[in-house]
Design a protein that fits this description.
CATH class of the largest domain: Mainly Beta
Number of strands: 12
Strand order of the largest sheet: 8-5-1-2-3-12-11
Strand content: 15-25%
CATH architecture of the largest domain: Sandwich
Largest sheet: 7 strands, mixed
């Protein structure tokens, strides 16, 4: 009886705490298709683990009650019982089934979030270059020819294609209510597809530790209707100052700054590491020239060695 009341108390406490949360976790309050897909996977994982834990607890209680110590004599010997192949098969197969189930769900979800968001496949995405530095976020809008620092305005009901890279250590771009995180690195560009279904203000941040200023490496996101977004772009072009190479180089210096807006983008004088500007690309003309010089130098050394012999 005491065990039953203890189990009831635990369940009641958990239920009370969970239902008393006024502010849900941001990852479980999705505002876009990618975030919704990931929230579904999280809930499937939680319910799967909850069923496993509750099953184990119930079986544990049953074993304690049914096979508890009895008032047998000191010389009592329980009967010998052979192992059950059926039971052994069951407790080996069940974990395998669980792992396969969660693996299928995860892989399917990854394929979904890596592609253009569901419902937006026929729309042209808005491309935004999101570059991180210590400890700021630089957002370049090539289509609009504007740039913002530490804040992001996006239209609702339109796919957004982020091009992620870094001018400092590896960072992780993350807007919890719109989708999962993805790394921004210095020598390549990663692509992240997101979309906002509803207007609102959301929090974005660097989810990867990157030094002393990591805690404040955040940015604000505002999703708005297309017409309001176009009005914002028009206002920026009329009022903002153009970004210069000197201004951008000062922004790259380690430290924290507020929000700022510019016309033009830093891509004109400091392009993203993609195509011929990628750090890992070995097909550019400069690289081919260096390779030719290396071959010529090797042939010269070989010829000299031959003459010495």
């Amino acid at each position: 009886m005491k065990m039953k009341w203890a189990l009831f108390t635990i369940i009641f406490t958990i239920a009370t705490v969970l239902t008393g949360c006024d502010n849900p976790l941001m990852v479980l309050d999705p505002k876009g298709p990618a975030a919704q897909e990931q929230a579904n996977v999280i809930m499937i994982s939680i319910w799967t683990m909850a069923i496993i834990v509750l099953t184990v607890i119930v079986l544990y209680v049953i074993m304690l009650v049914k096979y508890r110590a009895s008032k047998q004599s000191d010389d009592y010997e329980p009967p010998h019982i052979e192992g059950s192949k059926v039971l052994e098969t069951i407790w080996v197969v069940i974990p395998i089934v669980i792992v396969i189930f969660l693996s299928v769900v995860t892989v399917k979800s990854l394929n979904t979030v890596e592609a253009k968001p569901e419902g937006y496949k026929n729309q042209e995405p808005l491309v935004i270059y999101a570059a991180s530095s210590n400890w700021k976020w630089h957002f370049s809008y090539p289509e609009e020819d504007i740039e913002t620092v530490n804040y992001l305005f996006i239209p609702t009901n339109r796919p957004i294609e982020f091009k992620l890279y870094s001018y400092g250590p590896i960072s992780s771009f993350w807007i919890p209510q719109l989708g999962g995180q993805k790394y921004a690195m210095s020598d390549m560009v990663n692509t992240l597809h997101l979309a906002a279904d509803a207007p609102g203000e959301y929090m974005g941040r660097n989810a990867n530790f990157s030094g002393a200023g990591f805690a404040q490496h955040t940015f604000n996101v505002k999703a708005m209707p297309e017409a309001e977004y176009e009005e914002w772009v028009s206002d920026i072009k009329k009022t903002a100052k153009p970004i210069t190479e000197d201004t951008f180089n000062k922004l790259l210096e380690p430290g924290h700054v507020g929000q700022s807006t510019y016309t033009g983008t830093h891509l004109d004088f400091s392009p993203a590491p993609e195509g011929e500007h990628a750090g890992h690309n070995h097909g550019s003309s400069d690289t081919e020239e260096d390779h030719s010089e290396h071959e010529e130098h090797a042939e010269h050394e070989e010829h000299s060695e031959h003459n010495n012999h």
